[in-house]
Write a structure and sequence with these properties.
It is a single chain. By secondary structure, this protein is an alpha+beta fold. It has three domains: 14-156, Triger factor/SurA peptide-binding fold; 188-200 and 306-407, Chitinase A, domain 3 (Roll); 203-301, Chitinase A, domain 3 (Roll), CATH 3.10.50.40. The protein contains 17 helices and 16 strands. It has helices at 15-18, 56-68, 75-97, 104-122, 125-132, 136-161, 168-176, 203-221, 227-234, 238-241, 257-265, 307-326, 331-337, 342-345, 368-374, 417-441, 450-453; strands at 20-21, 28-29, 35-37, 40-43, 45-49, 52-55, 185-186, 189-198, 275-277, 280-290, 293-301, 361-362, 386-389, 395-406, 409-410, 446-448. The protein has a four-stranded antiparallel sheet, covered by helices on one side. Strands 2-3-4 form a three-stranded antiparallel sheet, with no helix packed on it. Strand 2 and strand 3 (35-37) form a beta hairpin. Helix 2 (56-68) packs across helix 3, helix 4 (104-122) crosses helix 5 and helix 4 (104-122) packs across helix 6. The two termini are 29 Å apart. The model is unreliable at 3-39 (pLDDT under 50).
Amino acid sequence: MLLPKKMFDCSKGLVFAAVLLQICASGQVRTDGSVALEGQLIDRVIANVAGRIVLYSELAGRVAQAQQSGERMNDPQVCGELEELLFQQLLLEQARLDSVVPDEAQVNAELDRRIRYFAQQIGSDEALEKYYGKSITRIKADFRQQVSDQLLAQQMQQKITGDRSATPKEVTAYFNAIPKDSLPFINAGVEFARIVKYAKPSEAEERRVKKSLEELRTRITTGKLDFATAASLYSQDVGSVRDGGKLPMVKPGIMVPEFDAVAMSLKDGEVSQVFKTDFGYHVMSMMERKGEEYQARHILLKLETSADDMMLAKNFMDSTTALVREGTITFARAASEMNDDEDTKGTNGTVIEPNGNNPRWAIGDLDKETFSILDKLAVGDISVPQSFELPSGEKGYRVFKLIKRTEPHVMDLVEDYPLVNEAAENAARQKIVDAWVKERLSNIYVRIIPDYAGCTFEHAWVKPVAP
């Protein structure tokens, strides 16, 4: 195998489901680009694309992630993962040449999405912070560059392919070109919509939490209590409470806008007024400002939803569902006008599968709770309101509508037209990308270490040696 079965792990190892191997700060860089710790090799440069390096740890992370997804990795698969990394570096270099920059708002949104996903997988934000031994903010900061590079590479690839789409004639030709015995098997799937109502804390709870934090701030500013001690005793931010509320040095955009705005208004050593974000009420102490970056301590007190708050959300959802069932309002209109879920308000309630960016969900990709609800519905049916709690701690009620259900079957042009159309468009775009890569590799420097130079790649990353 091109990769050993065991990878060395420093400081909790692979971030976010084995995406990146952390390199220990105490490691020593060797002349060949590898990093050693106590005599053991933990990382090294395995490729160079126009001065952009690919690390062994990056490849190892991709392989580990694939293995965790159930894929059996052998040498050709490892080589394929390496080629993806080479291709990304080529795109990033072209982005530099073309002065294409990442969309920071998109980077922040993707970071938030990944945090929500992994928090859901592990149980909660607090569980995620406990597992990695660092705050959500620190995890996001550690992961930011990788997400930025991935999105920038996607942006550059889209620039290369343009808005290439497939005509119905091309889609049909693409489908007919697939040998009948090679048509893919499509697993059972569903399309569904939902309406969400969050349980909102009462005004009395808002006043209670704000007053408690204002009293705590007064004790701090009058010298009766040290800020770090107060944070350790009272803050509900699990990730920073162990360190006296201290957060990492960050740039604006890592934190929520309200937090950044307060931070930018403070001088070193200054304590903010009490302010609110989606996480609750905060008070901040500015530790240090370096240009646009800042490091601060904060205390967070969260708002708690009561049984009465949940009952109000349930009553609202009961009434909304009744109006839909009576025909007074359509489900689509209710989802657009009476929905707290920002992800589905603009789609008339339809839940979009994020990877394929289409409404069809494979049954295996649904979480257990959603599957158990949809499994009991007939097409067109609406569920009774269901209580829920998100990893972030938000609670409420939601209803589901089953729009479509498909049984396992061999791909059909009519039944699966959106999937066939997507595949045809991807094939057309791939031809454009292949031609672009071939042209770029003819005049760009690429070096791959001997261990991987024997890989069979789709493109000529390794130049043939002249006789």
